[in-house]
Amino acid sequence: MKEPIINNLFPTPIYMTNMDRPFTKQELKFVEEQKKHCTKNQGNINTKDNYILNRKEFKNIKKFLDAACKDYLERIICPKNNIELYITQSWLNYTEENQYHHRHEHPNSVVSGVLYFDSDKDKDMIKFFSHVKYQQIKPEIEDDKYNLWNSSSWWFAVETGQLVMFPSSTTHQVDTKKGNNTRVSLAFNTFYKGAVGSNYSLTELIL
Predict the structure, then answer these.
(1) Is 206 part of any domain?
(2) Residue 3 domain-assigned?
(3) pTM score > 0.85 for this model?
(4) Per residue in 96-105, pLDDT tens?
(5) From residue 37, how far is each of 11, 57, 188 by CA, in Å?
(6) DSSP bridge partners of 90
(7) CATH number for the domain including 157?
(8) How many domains does the chain have?
(9) Contact indicator for 111, 187 with CB cutoff of 8 Å
C-alpha cells in the first residue's frame, strides 16, 4: 500500500515562545510583593489586581506581550481588516506544592496567554483538552500509544521565561503541583480593536 497522508484538519494553535532576556530584579521583587495581595482561586491563589500589566513595574513585559499578540494575529488569524489584538485583563497566579489550577476556559476573550516567572520544566506543565465533546467509541489505548488524533487531552512542559498563547475557548488546567518551587505565572486575555466583519454583508462590528 502506498504511504498514506494524514492531514491535521482544524488544529488548535498553541503558540509558544520565550522571553529574549531574564526577568529584572525589579520585576521579580514586584511579583514577590504581589503575593501578599491575593485572593483564593479554585486550587491556588491569584492577585486582586486583574489589570496587573498596567503597573509601571511590568512596562517592558507589556511591550513583549503586545509584540507577541501582534505576531499571533499576523501568523495565525491573518485578518483582512486592519485590526489589533490588545490585552484586556491580566493577573498573577501562584501555585504551591500540592495545589492546582482548576479546569476552565476564558470567556469574553479571543486569545489568552500565560507567561511563566517561576516554573520547573521537569515538573510543571499546562494541560489542554479536546473540543470534541463526544466520541462514538472509546477504545482502551496503551500508555505509550497516545497521539494527537486519539487523545482527549495533551500537556506541555513549561519553563521560566516561556510564553504560551492559545484560543481562549480552549479548555485547560494545571494538575496537582509537584516540586517545592512556587509556580508563578502571569495570565492575560485579549480582544479585537478595529472593524471586524463586512459592511457589505451586514456583519460589520466596530470595536
Answers:
(1) no
(2) no
(3) yes
(4) 999 999 999 9
(5) 38, 16, 18
(6) 51, 188
(7) 2.60.120.620
(8) 1
(9) no
Asked if the structure places residue 207 within a domain, the reply is: no
pLDDT score of 87: 98
CB 13 within 8 A of CB 110: no
The model's confidence at residue 203, banded by pLDDT at 50, 70 and 90, is very high
- On whether the CB atoms of residues 192 and 85 are closer than 8 A, the answer is yes
142, amino acid identity: E
Look at strands 125-129 and 172-174 and give their pairing: antiparallel
pLDDT of residue 137: 67
CA atoms within 13 A on the CB side of 5: 2
The residues, ordered by sequence, that sit 6+ positions from 144 with a Cβ below 8 Å of its Cβ are none
Residue 205 in any domain: the answer is no
Please give the grid coordinates belonging to residue 147.
497521539
